[in-house]
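User: Reviewer 2 asked us to show a designed sequence for the structure in our supplementary figure. I'm pasting the C-alpha coordinates here. Could you produce the per-position amino acids so we can include them in the response letter?
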Protein backbone atom coordinates (compact mmCIF):
# COMPACT_ATOMS: atom_id res chain seq x y z
CA UNK A 1 0.00 0.00 0.00
CA UNK A 2 1.01 3.64 -0.39
CA UNK A 3 2.20 5.49 2.70
CA UNK A 4 4.05 8.67 3.65
CA UNK A 5 7.17 7.42 5.36
CA UNK A 6 10.01 9.01 7.26
CA UNK A 7 12.35 6.74 5.39
CA UNK A 8 15.74 8.23 6.19
CA UNK A 9 17.01 10.26 9.16
CA UNK A 10 17.00 13.55 7.26
CA UNK A 11 14.45 16.30 6.37
CA UNK A 12 11.50 15.29 4.17
CA UNK A 13 8.95 12.51 3.80
CA UNK A 14 8.83 9.80 1.15
CA UNK A 15 5.76 8.43 -0.65
CA UNK A 16 6.57 4.74 -0.47
CA UNK A 17 5.13 1.24 -0.90
CA UNK A 18 4.90 -0.56 2.46
CA UNK A 19 3.19 -3.78 3.56
CA UNK A 20 -0.44 -3.50 4.70
CA UNK A 21 -0.63 -3.61 8.51
CA UNK A 22 -1.60 -6.94 10.11
CA UNK A 23 -4.36 -6.99 12.72
CA UNK A 24 -4.35 -8.78 16.04
CA UNK A 25 -7.49 -10.21 17.66
CA UNK A 26 -8.31 -6.88 19.35
CA UNK A 27 -7.50 -4.63 16.38
CA UNK A 28 -9.49 -2.86 13.70
CA UNK A 29 -8.24 -2.25 10.15
CA UNK A 30 -9.25 1.15 8.78
CA UNK A 31 -9.19 2.26 5.14
CA UNK A 32 -8.08 5.88 5.45
CA UNK A 33 -10.25 8.54 3.76
CA UNK A 34 -8.77 11.83 5.01
CA UNK A 35 -5.82 12.83 7.15
CA UNK A 36 -4.82 16.22 8.56
CA UNK A 37 -1.32 17.57 9.12
CA UNK A 38 -0.32 18.31 12.71
CA UNK A 39 2.50 20.55 13.96
CA UNK A 40 4.13 17.32 15.19
CA UNK A 41 4.22 16.02 11.59
CA UNK A 42 5.97 19.24 10.55
CA UNK A 43 8.60 18.66 13.29
CA UNK A 44 9.09 15.14 11.90
CA UNK A 45 9.22 16.44 8.33
CA UNK A 46 11.81 19.08 9.26
CA UNK A 47 13.77 16.50 11.29
CA UNK A 48 14.37 18.84 14.21
CA UNK A 49 16.09 17.89 17.45
CA UNK A 50 12.89 16.47 19.01
CA UNK A 51 12.18 14.34 15.90
CA UNK A 52 15.77 13.05 15.78
CA UNK A 53 15.61 11.74 19.31
CA UNK A 54 12.02 10.42 19.05
CA UNK A 55 11.45 8.83 15.61
CA UNK A 56 13.01 5.54 14.58
CA UNK A 57 13.25 5.37 10.78
CA UNK A 58 11.64 4.01 8.70
CA UNK A 59 8.32 5.15 10.21
CA UNK A 60 4.94 5.75 8.55
CA UNK A 61 3.83 9.00 10.18
CA UNK A 62 0.49 10.80 10.75
CA UNK A 63 -2.12 10.51 13.50
CA UNK A 64 -5.04 12.79 12.51
CA UNK A 65 -7.43 10.69 10.41
CA UNK A 66 -10.86 9.46 9.48
CA UNK A 67 -11.68 6.31 7.54
CA UNK A 68 -13.88 3.24 7.30
CA UNK A 69 -13.52 -0.14 8.96
CA UNK A 70 -12.62 -2.87 6.46
CA UNK A 71 -11.59 -5.68 8.78
CA UNK A 72 -11.39 -6.55 12.47
CA UNK A 73 -9.94 -9.12 14.84
CA UNK A 74 -11.97 -11.99 16.34
CA UNK A 75 -12.45 -10.19 19.69
CA UNK A 76 -14.14 -7.18 18.09
CA UNK A 77 -17.92 -7.54 18.19
CA UNK A 78 -19.42 -4.06 18.56
CA UNK A 79 -18.26 -2.49 15.28
CA UNK A 80 -18.91 -3.50 11.69
CA UNK A 81 -17.29 -3.20 8.29
CA UNK A 82 -18.14 0.14 6.67
CA UNK A 83 -18.40 2.07 9.98
CA UNK A 84 -16.99 5.61 9.74
CA UNK A 85 -14.34 6.00 12.41
CA UNK A 86 -11.61 8.26 13.68
CA UNK A 87 -9.34 7.24 16.51
CA UNK A 88 -7.33 8.21 19.52
CA UNK A 89 -3.66 8.39 18.55
CA UNK A 90 -2.47 7.74 22.09
CA UNK A 91 -2.24 3.98 22.60
CA UNK A 92 -2.30 3.36 26.35
CA UNK A 93 -1.24 0.36 28.40
CA UNK A 94 -4.69 -0.32 29.91
CA UNK A 95 -3.15 -1.75 33.10
CA UNK A 96 -1.55 1.13 35.04
CA UNK A 97 -3.34 2.83 37.94
CA UNK A 98 -4.63 5.72 35.82
CA UNK A 99 -5.77 3.50 32.95
CA UNK A 100 -7.65 1.20 35.34
CA UNK A 101 -9.28 4.23 36.97
CA UNK A 102 -10.52 5.49 33.59
CA UNK A 103 -7.96 8.31 33.38
CA UNK A 104 -6.37 6.94 30.27
CA UNK A 105 -4.99 10.32 29.13
CA UNK A 106 -2.68 10.00 32.17
CA UNK A 107 -1.34 6.51 31.29
CA UNK A 108 2.22 5.95 32.47
CA UNK A 109 3.21 4.34 29.18
CA UNK A 110 1.55 6.10 26.22
CA UNK A 111 2.66 5.26 22.66
CA UNK A 112 1.89 7.60 19.76
CA UNK A 113 0.43 6.49 16.42
CA UNK A 114 2.72 7.87 13.69
CA UNK A 115 5.39 8.68 16.28
CA UNK A 116 6.30 5.49 18.17
CA UNK A 117 4.32 3.06 15.97
CA UNK A 118 3.18 2.96 12.37
CA UNK A 119 0.84 5.83 11.50
CA UNK A 120 -2.18 7.04 9.55
CA UNK A 121 -0.62 8.62 6.44
CA UNK A 122 -1.30 5.39 4.59
CA UNK A 123 -4.04 3.60 2.72
CA UNK A 124 -4.67 1.40 5.79
CA UNK A 125 -4.15 1.78 9.53
CA UNK A 126 -4.50 -0.87 12.27
CA UNK A 127 -5.28 0.26 15.83
CA UNK A 128 -6.71 -1.45 18.92
CA UNK A 129 -10.51 -1.39 19.08
CA UNK A 130 -10.20 0.55 22.36
CA UNK A 131 -8.75 3.44 20.32
CA UNK A 132 -11.57 3.63 17.78
CA UNK A 133 -14.08 6.50 17.86
CA UNK A 134 -17.28 5.74 15.98
CA UNK A 135 -18.17 8.94 14.10
CA UNK A 136 -21.47 10.64 13.42
CA UNK A 137 -21.72 10.25 9.61
CA UNK A 138 -23.54 13.62 9.41
CA UNK A 139 -20.27 15.38 10.30
CA UNK A 140 -18.14 16.11 7.19
CA UNK A 141 -15.05 13.89 6.87
CA UNK A 142 -12.79 16.99 6.58
CA UNK A 143 -13.93 17.98 10.07
CA UNK A 144 -13.63 14.43 11.42
CA UNK A 145 -10.04 14.25 10.17
CA UNK A 146 -9.29 17.15 12.56
CA UNK A 147 -10.80 15.52 15.68
CA UNK A 148 -7.40 14.91 17.27
CA UNK A 149 -6.41 18.63 17.47
CA UNK A 150 -10.04 19.64 18.02
CA UNK A 151 -9.80 17.30 20.99
CA UNK A 152 -6.75 19.14 22.31
CA UNK A 153 -8.70 22.40 22.01
CA UNK A 154 -11.79 20.88 23.65
CA UNK A 155 -9.86 19.24 26.48
CA UNK A 156 -8.11 22.53 27.26
CA UNK A 157 -11.15 24.78 26.87
CA UNK A 158 -13.42 22.61 29.02
CA UNK A 159 -10.88 22.18 31.81
CA UNK A 160 -12.38 25.12 33.74
CA UNK A 161 -15.86 26.59 34.04
CA UNK A 162 -16.05 29.42 31.46
CA UNK A 163 -19.55 30.76 32.04
CA UNK A 164 -19.27 34.55 32.26
CA UNK A 165 -15.45 34.38 32.46
CA UNK A 166 -12.86 36.40 30.54
CA UNK A 167 -10.46 34.14 28.66
CA UNK A 168 -6.97 34.87 27.34
CA UNK A 169 -5.60 32.54 24.63
CA UNK A 170 -1.91 32.89 23.78
CA UNK A 171 -1.19 31.46 20.31
CA UNK A 172 -3.62 31.46 17.37
CA UNK A 173 -2.41 28.24 15.76
CA UNK A 174 -5.13 25.82 14.65
CA UNK A 175 -5.67 24.62 18.23
CA UNK A 176 -5.80 28.15 19.67
CA UNK A 177 -8.28 29.24 17.00
CA UNK A 178 -10.54 26.22 17.55
CA UNK A 179 -10.52 26.90 21.29
CA UNK A 180 -11.85 30.43 20.65
CA UNK A 181 -15.07 29.05 19.23
CA UNK A 182 -15.38 26.47 22.01
CA UNK A 183 -14.82 29.08 24.75
CA UNK A 184 -17.51 31.33 23.28
CA UNK A 185 -19.93 28.43 22.95
CA UNK A 186 -19.17 27.37 26.54
CA UNK A 187 -20.27 30.80 27.79
CA UNK A 188 -17.15 32.95 28.11
CA UNK A 189 -17.80 36.70 28.21
CA UNK A 190 -14.66 37.99 26.44
CA UNK A 191 -12.12 35.92 24.54
CA UNK A 192 -8.84 37.69 23.75
CA UNK A 193 -6.24 36.03 21.51
CA UNK A 194 -2.56 36.89 21.06
CA UNK A 195 -0.17 35.95 18.26
CA UNK A 196 2.63 37.40 16.15
CA UNK A 197 0.96 36.41 12.88
CA UNK A 198 -1.78 38.74 11.50
CA UNK A 199 -3.27 35.99 9.25
CA UNK A 200 -3.89 33.79 12.24
CA UNK A 201 -5.30 36.65 14.32
CA UNK A 202 -7.78 37.30 11.48
CA UNK A 203 -8.85 33.64 11.64
CA UNK A 204 -9.25 33.95 15.42
CA UNK A 205 -11.53 36.96 14.89
CA UNK A 206 -13.56 35.03 12.32
CA UNK A 207 -14.01 32.27 14.92
CA UNK A 208 -15.43 34.72 17.46
CA UNK A 209 -12.54 36.38 19.33
CA UNK A 210 -13.69 39.64 20.92
CA UNK A 211 -10.25 41.20 20.66
CA UNK A 212 -6.90 40.18 19.17
CA UNK A 213 -3.44 41.36 20.18
CA UNK A 214 -0.45 41.28 17.82
CA UNK A 215 2.18 41.19 20.54
CA UNK A 216 4.82 42.57 18.15
CA UNK A 217 3.15 46.00 18.33
CA UNK A 218 0.40 45.75 20.96
CA UNK A 219 0.05 44.75 24.58
CA UNK A 220 -2.46 42.55 26.36
CA UNK A 221 -3.03 45.48 28.75
CA UNK A 222 -4.48 47.40 25.76
CA UNK A 223 -7.12 44.69 25.30
CA UNK A 224 -7.95 44.81 29.01
CA UNK A 225 -8.49 48.57 28.72
CA UNK A 226 -10.43 48.37 25.44
CA UNK A 227 -12.85 45.84 26.94
CA UNK A 228 -13.07 47.81 30.23
CA UNK A 229 -12.07 44.74 32.22
CA UNK A 230 -10.98 45.56 35.74
CA UNK A 231 -9.04 42.66 37.20
CA UNK A 232 -7.36 40.71 34.40
CA UNK A 233 -8.28 37.34 32.89
CA UNK A 234 -10.08 34.63 34.83
CA UNK A 235 -8.92 31.76 32.62
CA UNK A 236 -5.92 31.35 30.30
CA UNK A 237 -5.21 28.78 27.59
CA UNK A 238 -1.51 28.71 26.69
CA UNK A 239 -1.41 27.44 23.09
CA UNK A 240 1.73 28.96 21.60
CA UNK A 241 4.55 26.97 23.20
CA UNK A 242 6.34 30.33 23.48
CA UNK A 243 7.89 31.30 26.86
CA UNK A 244 7.32 35.04 26.32
CA UNK A 245 3.64 34.39 25.62
CA UNK A 246 3.37 32.31 28.81
CA UNK A 247 4.92 35.05 30.94
CA UNK A 248 2.66 37.65 29.25
CA UNK A 249 -0.25 35.47 30.34
CA UNK A 250 0.93 35.09 33.94
CA UNK A 251 1.19 38.88 34.24
CA UNK A 252 -2.32 39.53 32.95
CA UNK A 253 -4.32 37.03 35.00
CA UNK A 254 -6.79 38.09 37.69
CA UNK A 255 -5.76 37.03 41.20
CA UNK A 256 -6.87 33.42 41.59
CA UNK A 257 -6.86 32.98 37.80
CA UNK A 258 -6.58 29.52 36.26
CA UNK A 259 -4.29 28.55 33.39
CA UNK A 260 -4.58 25.45 31.21
CA UNK A 261 -1.15 24.83 29.70
CA UNK A 262 -1.26 22.90 26.41
CA UNK A 263 1.67 24.59 24.63
CA UNK A 264 4.93 22.71 24.94
CA UNK A 265 7.35 25.26 26.34
CA UNK A 266 11.09 24.93 25.96
CA UNK A 267 13.06 25.51 29.16
CA UNK A 268 11.39 28.63 30.46
CA UNK A 269 12.15 31.10 33.18
CA UNK A 270 8.82 31.68 34.91
CA UNK A 271 7.95 34.63 37.13
CA UNK A 272 7.07 32.43 40.13
CA UNK A 273 6.39 35.51 42.31
CA UNK A 274 3.46 36.41 40.06
CA UNK A 275 2.20 32.81 40.29
CA UNK A 276 2.49 32.68 44.09
CA UNK A 277 1.40 36.17 45.13
CA UNK A 278 -1.51 36.17 42.66
CA UNK A 279 -2.59 32.66 43.65
CA UNK A 280 -2.62 31.27 40.12
CA UNK A 281 -3.43 27.68 39.22
CA UNK A 282 -1.49 26.17 36.31
CA UNK A 283 -2.59 22.81 34.98
CA UNK A 284 -0.80 20.81 32.28
CA UNK A 285 -3.09 19.43 29.57
CA UNK A 286 -2.07 16.35 27.58
CA UNK A 287 -3.93 14.82 24.68
CA UNK A 288 -7.63 14.19 25.02
CA UNK A 289 -9.70 12.57 27.78
CA UNK A 290 -10.65 9.08 26.61
CA UNK A 291 -13.39 9.37 25.73
CA UNK A 292 -15.15 12.25 27.43
CA UNK A 293 -13.37 14.78 25.19
CA UNK A 294 -14.35 12.82 22.06
CA UNK A 295 -17.96 12.77 23.24
CA UNK A 296 -17.99 16.50 24.03
CA UNK A 297 -16.44 17.58 20.73
CA UNK A 298 -18.93 15.45 18.83
CA UNK A 299 -21.87 16.98 20.67
CA UNK A 300 -20.42 20.50 20.36
CA UNK A 301 -20.34 20.03 16.57
CA UNK A 302 -23.80 18.46 16.57
CA UNK A 303 -25.04 21.55 18.41
CA UNK A 304 -23.57 24.04 15.94
CA UNK A 305 -19.82 24.45 16.55
CA UNK A 306 -18.37 25.05 13.09
CA UNK A 307 -14.65 24.57 12.58
CA UNK A 308 -14.76 24.42 8.76
CA UNK A 309 -13.29 27.95 8.35
CA UNK A 310 -10.09 26.62 9.95
CA UNK A 311 -9.56 24.08 7.14
CA UNK A 312 -7.72 26.30 4.66
CA UNK A 313 -6.00 23.79 2.35
CA UNK A 314 -7.00 20.46 0.81
CA UNK A 315 -4.72 18.26 -1.31
CA UNK A 316 -4.53 14.72 -2.65
CA UNK A 317 -2.04 12.74 -0.57
CA UNK A 318 0.38 12.55 -3.50
CA UNK A 319 0.64 16.36 -3.21
CA UNK A 320 1.73 16.14 0.42
CA UNK A 321 4.74 18.42 -0.26
CA UNK A 322 2.30 21.27 -1.03
CA UNK A 323 0.50 20.55 2.22
CA UNK A 324 3.69 20.75 4.25
CA UNK A 325 4.69 23.95 2.44
CA UNK A 326 1.30 25.47 3.38
CA UNK A 327 1.84 24.43 7.02
CA UNK A 328 5.30 25.99 7.03
CA UNK A 329 4.09 29.23 5.39
CA UNK A 330 2.31 30.40 8.56
CA UNK A 331 -0.70 31.28 6.37
CA UNK A 332 -2.59 28.03 6.88
CA UNK A 333 -5.09 26.73 9.35
CA UNK A 334 -5.57 22.96 9.05
CA UNK A 335 -4.33 21.18 5.92
CA UNK A 336 -6.29 18.04 4.94
CA UNK A 337 -5.01 15.26 2.64
CA UNK A 338 -7.47 13.12 0.65
CA UNK A 339 -6.81 9.35 0.38
CA UNK A 340 -10.10 8.32 -1.26
CA UNK A 341 -8.70 8.00 -4.81
P1 LIG B 1 1.17 26.25 16.14
O1 LIG B 1 2.64 26.21 16.21
O2 LIG B 1 0.48 26.12 14.83
O3 LIG B 1 0.64 27.58 16.84
C1 LIG B 1 1.35 28.33 17.75
C2 LIG B 1 1.03 29.79 17.49
O4 LIG B 1 1.69 30.58 18.50
C3 LIG B 1 1.53 30.29 16.13
O5 LIG B 1 0.46 30.87 15.39
C4 LIG B 1 2.60 31.32 16.51
O6 LIG B 1 2.67 32.40 15.57
C5 LIG B 1 2.10 31.77 17.89
N1 LIG B 1 3.12 32.50 18.69
C6 LIG B 1 4.47 32.46 18.57
N2 LIG B 1 5.04 33.33 19.45
C7 LIG B 1 4.03 33.91 20.13
C8 LIG B 1 3.98 34.89 21.16
N3 LIG B 1 5.09 35.44 21.68
N4 LIG B 1 2.77 35.27 21.63
C9 LIG B 1 1.63 34.72 21.12
N5 LIG B 1 1.62 33.80 20.14
C10 LIG B 1 2.80 33.39 19.64
O7 LIG B 1 0.67 25.12 17.16
P2 LIG B 1 -0.69 24.30 17.33
O8 LIG B 1 -0.65 23.09 16.46
O9 LIG B 1 -1.89 25.18 17.29
O10 LIG B 1 -0.44 23.80 18.83
C11 LIG B 1 -0.36 24.74 19.89
C12 LIG B 1 0.64 24.31 20.94
O11 LIG B 1 0.16 23.15 21.61
C13 LIG B 1 2.03 23.94 20.43
O12 LIG B 1 3.00 24.37 21.39
C14 LIG B 1 1.99 22.42 20.37
O13 LIG B 1 3.28 21.85 20.47
C15 LIG B 1 1.16 22.13 21.59
N6 LIG B 1 0.44 20.85 21.59
C16 LIG B 1 0.33 20.21 22.79
C17 LIG B 1 -0.40 19.05 22.90
C18 LIG B 1 -0.57 18.40 24.23
O14 LIG B 1 -1.11 17.28 24.28
N7 LIG B 1 -0.15 19.04 25.29
C19 LIG B 1 -1.04 18.51 21.76
C20 LIG B 1 -0.93 19.19 20.55
C21 LIG B 1 -0.19 20.37 20.48
ZN1 LIG C 1 -1.72 2.96 31.32
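Assistant: Here is a per-position design you can include in the supplement:
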Amino acid sequence: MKALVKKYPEPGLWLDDVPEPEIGINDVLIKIEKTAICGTDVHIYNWDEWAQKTIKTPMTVGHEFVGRIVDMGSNVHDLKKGDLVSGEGHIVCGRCRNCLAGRRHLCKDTKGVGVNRTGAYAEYLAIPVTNVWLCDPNIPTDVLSCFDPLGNATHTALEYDLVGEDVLITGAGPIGIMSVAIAKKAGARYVVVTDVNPHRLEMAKAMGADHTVDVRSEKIEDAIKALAMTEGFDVGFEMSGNPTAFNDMIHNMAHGGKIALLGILPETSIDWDAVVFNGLTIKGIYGRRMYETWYKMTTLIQSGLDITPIITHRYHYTEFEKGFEAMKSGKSGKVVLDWTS
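For the response letter, you might also mention the following. The chain is about 30% helix and 25% strand. The CA atoms of residues 188 and 236 lie 12 Å apart.
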